[in-house]
Amino acid sequence: MPGRFRKFLSLLIVVLAVCLGLSACSGVRKAPSSSGEQALQAAPQVEEYRIQVGDQLEIKFFYNSELNEQAVVRPDGRISLQLVKEVVAAGFTPAELTRLLSTKYADELQKPELVVIVRSFGSQRVYVDGEVAKPGMIPLVGYVTVSQAISQAGGLKEGARATDVVVIRHGVGNRPLTLTVNLQKVYDGTDLQQDIPLKFFDIVYVPRSQIANVNIWVDQYIRRNLPISLAFFYNFNP
């Protein structure tokens, strides 16, 4: 009798352990991986585009196609349209301008259903200067980061200081906002978030390294002012 009881007790413990294990597995949710969370946090937040001076707009009506037209945003930020004359367009998103024009055309049309389409971007550009191969203006088409703009400018020169790339942009109240980007961490993969997306009219400036500055100083104040070559001192053997 004691032997049978011990066998029964052992079997009961095994069954209870299996049941508890199954219930625990069913109640536990798999935690999201930290790499997945980091990827979501690192995903770029794309802002809705706002119409700028020089943009070419197309205004299309669903029920009044005779009013369809294209207009270029003038330097004063306005466009000229039929029936509603002049309208400020710069600074609005296409959706905001669509609602504004629908309201203005409501006095003239029974069904003022329309859509605003940006056909070309007149002012979507950034400027890359400093220690790059081809400094100048870069078209800003879509999502462009600092490293991508520098790549379009021919890449960094040998004496560039990649750790202190400066981005200058229009801040609040049209005041300049200065950002410092460490592209070296982007190139070696240690911090990809340093590669920030650019906005129109941003200025990307790549400074010289300290060694490059010393070389320029030596070239300007020593090599060009000495009547003999520096190689003379290295090749001279008494």
Structure description:
With 238 residues, the protein is α+β, with helices and mostly antiparallel strands. Among the domains are: 56-120, 2-Layer Sandwich (wza like fold); 125-213, Roll (Outer membrane lipoprotein wza fold like), CATH 3.10.560.10. The protein is built from seven helices and ten strands. The termini are far apart.
**CATH fold-level topology of the domain at 125-213:** Outer membrane lipoprotein wza fold like
Numbering strands along the chain, what is their spatial order in the largest sheet? 7-6-10-8-9
CATH class of the domain at 125-213: Alpha Beta
Q: What structural class should be given to the helix and strand makeup?
A: alpha+beta
Summed up, the helix count is: 7
Q: Characterize the largest beta sheet: strand count, sense, and whether it forms a barrel.
A: 5 strands, mixed
CATH H-level superfamily of the domain at 125-213: Outer membrane lipoprotein wza domain like
Q: What is the N-to-C succession of helices and strands?
A: HHEEEEHEEEHEEHEHH
Q: What percentage of residues falls in helices of 4 or more residues?
A: 25-40%
Which architecture of the domain at 125-213 does the CATH hierarchy give at level 2? Roll
Question: Can you tell me the overall shape?
Answer: elongated
Tell me the strand percentage band.
Answer: 15-25%
The count of DSSP E runs of length 2 or more, i.e. the number of strands, is 10
Mean pLDDT over the residues:
76
- Return residue spans where pLDDT drops below 50 for at least 5 consecutive residues: 11-43, 228-238
Distance from N terminus to C terminus (CA atoms, Å) equals 112 Å
Radius of gyration: 33 Å
